[in-house]
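FIELD: query
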Amino acid sequence: METVFHSVAPYVRYVYGEVYHLRGLNRRYVETALGVPVGYDPALDTALGRRFERLMRLYGLDGGLSTLPSLVLTRAVY
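FIELD: result
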């Protein structure tokens, strides 16, 4: 995740953590693409959210992260 922040920080002002909902088609699409089931670990989700927010501050970026259970996928807004 830090590599992404480092790479995009000179070019963007905002980054957002995308929500991966535990139910619905998105989960099925990701599992199909990866070829393995995708589980949910609340501790990992919390740790990733904290790291995302720390990296936003470190690189001086604005944006946000949903508080819903999620797998954090980083997307930059140009």
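FIELD: remark
Confidence is low (pLDDT under 50) at residues 67-78.
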